[in-house]
Amino acid sequence: MIDALVSLGHGFGVALTPMNLLFIFIGVCLGQLIGALPGLGPSAGMALLLPITFGIPPATAIMMLAGIMYGGMYGGTLTSVLVNVPGEAASVMTAVDGHKLAKQGRAGAALSVSAIGSFLAGVAAVTALVFVTPPLAEFALSFSSPEYFLLAALGITATASIGAGSPIKAILMAVFGLMIALVGTDPILGSARLTFGITELLDGIDFLPVAIGIFGIAEVLASLERSYDSEPIKTRLRDMWLSAKDWTECRIAILRGGTLGFFIGLMPGAGPTVAAILAYVTEKRFSRHPERFGNGALDGVAAAESANNSAAHGALIPMLALGIPGSASTAVLLAALVLQGIRPGPTLLVEQADLVWGLIASMFIGNIILLILNLPLAPAFASLLRIPYEYLAPGILVISLVGAYATTLSLFSVGLTLFFGMVGYLMMKADLPRAPVVLAVVLAQLMETSLRQSLMLSEGSLSIFVQRPLSAILLLLVIGSLLLPVMSMLTRRRAERRMRDETPISIATK
Amino acid sequence: MKTADILSAVVMLVLSGVVFLTTRDLPYWADFAPGSGFAPLWVAMTGGVLAIALLVGALRRQDNPPADWPDRTGWRRVLLTAAGLWAVIVLAPILGLMSTAVIFMLFLLLAVERRRLWPSLFTTAVTTALVYGVFSAWLGIAFPKGVIGI
């Protein structure tokens, strides 16, 4: 524990240099803006800005990108409360009650409780990260190729069982991601796969065109479908004060939402959106006034906002300690590490101590900056919502194209980005989840190489996956994560059948 | 949404077929470890099975919630934007990437979104300066230059 605190102190030394402070500030401001823009989420913003990070040192780049990730959680609140459009998916529950509160003249209270809740939950989650990451990374040093294969597989299968929506669609989209990752030269034997004679495809499809296309371009195209010339509800600085009654009502909601969000953030595939929804539902169950939920419940807003921010921070633990991203945003962050020439995994904490501890310290600083941006400066940020989205969309698209070009200096990459942009747009329309595609693209190579290494070690025997207790547990978790959606589907069908059978009886009894 | 699910399943079934057919000649096993054909085969098989499951589920489903397709104006905006984006790739080697990007932004703001002239010109100028400043001046990226040398 003392070691962790000493390392954190060292991390503050790294994060507090003028250049890093500037980029933390830029990152959280961009996150705040990206979160507030309807239709552009933090993962998309991070993917779009990834090419810019080539020009800055790795630690600075990661601090800035992480700032966008958690800054987006704060920013999404503004649009949800003042316009009734979730700025990003994790603010969907905030839009339900936050806008009702704004209509009742309590926009300031909703924004205030969101900022304070997000700040407290964020700081608590980073504190937990300080103490959980080092022992987990140390434990993970004993991992061998079978454990890595199973961990990567769990990262993909858990997306289906924990994430919202159809599990079949989620796994199918992960398979689509694996297909994308198969394109190029086989990592061990060097054979060309799925290149169709195109020389540019021999190097494989990079993560960046997929992420920029599927998140960035697709989201802008979807946003352009309709006009967002909205008139946000006005709020003043003096409306931001919370009464003692409001605070008493919300403090337990913040604690509950923050704790729940942190644990959900740890799980692969869940992420801030699931955390916010679950925290809102849980708070409604525990609330003394459940009837207020849906009509302007301040504690509902507090729980959802605390949960999404702590989940965003919690998701960094498996990414930093194991090198396994659990969400789309952490997948982009992991890709940023790889692009900077850093090998993610349990050794990251030892080999890149400055980067990891600097990042952790930067999150304390970033959360303080965001609290200031969202309390006294919230009305100023709210006025930015008056700029029509249509003026921003062309700029975002041009940055996407130029960013894609900058990665390889080839127009072929720009074409690939556009192709994935169109695919991503159609996926949105067909209600197909996009996060599993990106997660699979990131994890595919680790999966394939560690599977091969495992089977080489065991001379082709699959028993290597159950020989060590740890790999056996991971295998059970993978199987469990696949069976969970099947079980819940069967239970749901049985309940539906029972309801159908009972209905005629009750009519007959009448 | 039922139609969208059926179409998604068919597309994934075709993709799985393509993966299987184009990689079937690669070695499945090499010495004691999976060969180049191992992963594609399993990915194609899993994709095929899941696509069939999605297809059967969609065909058997009684309810059909409406898909969130845009209205006519929405379609016009999306299609014109997509066409404009592809035109950037075609025109960039001829006119230069930055010049094409400027034309694309003005096309999007004035023709597709029907925004006012002066704010559109101002937005385009600010974005161009930002993109040029970050990517060219700071990161030193050499953009494709066209016939006019920009």
Automatic annotation (TrEMBL), chain A:
It comes from the Bacteria. The chain crosses the membrane at residues 12-34, 46-70, 109-136, 148-164, 171-192, 204-224, 260-281, 315-342, 354-375, 395-420, 432-451, 471-490. InterPro entries: DUF112_TM. Residues 21-439 form the DUF112 domain. Coiled coil: none annotated. Keywords: Membrane, Transmembrane, Transmembrane helix. PANTHER family: TRICARBOXYLIC TRANSPORT PROTEIN (PTHR35342). This is Putative tricarboxylic transport membrane protein.
TrEMBL record, chain B:
This is Tripartite tricarboxylate transporter TctB family protein. The lineage of its organism: Bacteria, Pseudomonadati, Pseudomonadota, Alphaproteobacteria, Hyphomicrobiales. Keywords: Membrane, Transmembrane, Transmembrane helix. Residues 7-144 form the DUF1468 domain. The keyword Metal-binding does not apply. The chain crosses the membrane at residues 6-26, 38-59, 79-109, 121-143. It comes from the Bacteria. It comes from Microvirga subterranea.
